[in-house]
Amino acid sequence: MPAPRRELLMDTAEQLFYRDGFHATGIDRIQAESGVAKTTLYKHFASKDALILAVLERASMRVRSSLQQQAQRLRGKGLERILAPFEDLQGVCGEDDFNGCLFNNAAAEFMYSNPPIHALAREHMDWMRQFLHQLLEEEGFDPQQAWLLLPLYEGVLTVARVQDSEPAIKQSLTAIRALLQT
Amino acid sequence: MPAPRRELLMDTAEQLFYRDGFHATGIDRIQAESGVAKTTLYKHFASKDALILAVLERASMRVRSSLQQQAQRLRGKGLERILAPFEDLQGVCGEDDFNGCLFNNAAAEFMYSNPPIHALAREHMDWMRQFLHQLLEEEGFDPQQAWLLLPLYEGVLTVARVQDSEPAIKQSLTAIRALLQT
DNA sequence: GGATGGGTGTACAGATCTGTTTCTTTTTAT
DNA sequence: ATAAAAAGAAACAGATCTGTACACCCATCC
């Protein structure tokens, strides 16, 4: 099996886009870091924008299937099933090169300058909210609470960039417990 | 009173940095939009980094004094005093060129590439958390809830970039009410 | 045993970005 | 009124960025 150039490019690009940002990461850097020739990059992706879109789309699908798998495992477990994504935040925030939520970072950088990219970020968040909505519904909680859980989830990722994530996660977990069990 | 060039530059820069991002906003654009000559810009600010720092510092002070003034007005009003900053989010999220939280955007773009800017964003968040901590304490609530309120506040700003802010704010307000009144 | 397709390497075009230089003009203070 | 300070205009240096052109390598397949 030959080295899958396309995947390697997307891996490198995703890491750099996430860590350093989209505008700050040049094509040359992705080329140098991945070791793939620039010609090859432009044979696989029509432009930097196309690469960004491909990276975000793949990342979104990865997150979705991971969350869905976990939700599958915890089906019927009530509160535990709702809390699971928040418990995972501990690990996410502790990762090397952690830099918040990739989709929020993309939304911020391309809010008004690149509608397709911004739309992709919005779609990811939409999916997240609907996912939480369904989870809450299936476990017998008020599904409208998805409108609280989503900001809280994103807020923890956001605050953990500049502060200790541990107390934020801890307070969020106990708050969710208190709110849903009434 | 002559047009204060320095303030005009910072006004223009802040608007562009906020709307389009820091890396995406060039000096030339700030120059053109403000009408101030580039020579003058570099007479007031040693570099783009220095301009960014000045803009963030000024914005942080503006936010702080605004929140403190409001807190002063609502002294002793209990829950209402805690909720006030969250109620203001309605207006903030509806503004033209709204793009989340300026300090989080800065933290994301400069997380690993520019420690001074990242530190300034961290200091702003630190202040916010301590401010909420003090508010909670003064009104007789558990001050540790600041570790919940801060992510929630930032999360609403973050989610409102790609979704309707109204239900997020509404759910947050009722959640805070429910959590603190126990 | 060539043709084909994917990959490499390098140089380059053209745009843009930060920051500087030089010179002129306007404003302000004494 | 005149000196000094502030601002303006425009060109430019040097770096970097996206994207392309061109020549070459090398495996696989027919």
From TrEMBL, chains A, B:
| UniProt superkingdom | Bacteria
Q: Indicate the segments forming the HTH tetR-type domain, all copies.
A: 3-63
Keywords from the named record: DNA-binding, Transcription, Transcription regulation
Ranges of the DNA-binding region feature: 26-45
Protein name (Swiss-Prot/TrEMBL):
TetR family transcriptional regulator
Give the organism, scientific name. Marinobacterium halophilum
Lineage, highest ranks first: Bacteria, Pseudomonadati, Pseudomonadota, Gammaproteobacteria, Oceanospirillales
Return the Pfam families for the record.
TetR_C_13 (PF16925), TetR_N (PF00440)
Q: Name one GO molecular function term.
A: DNA binding
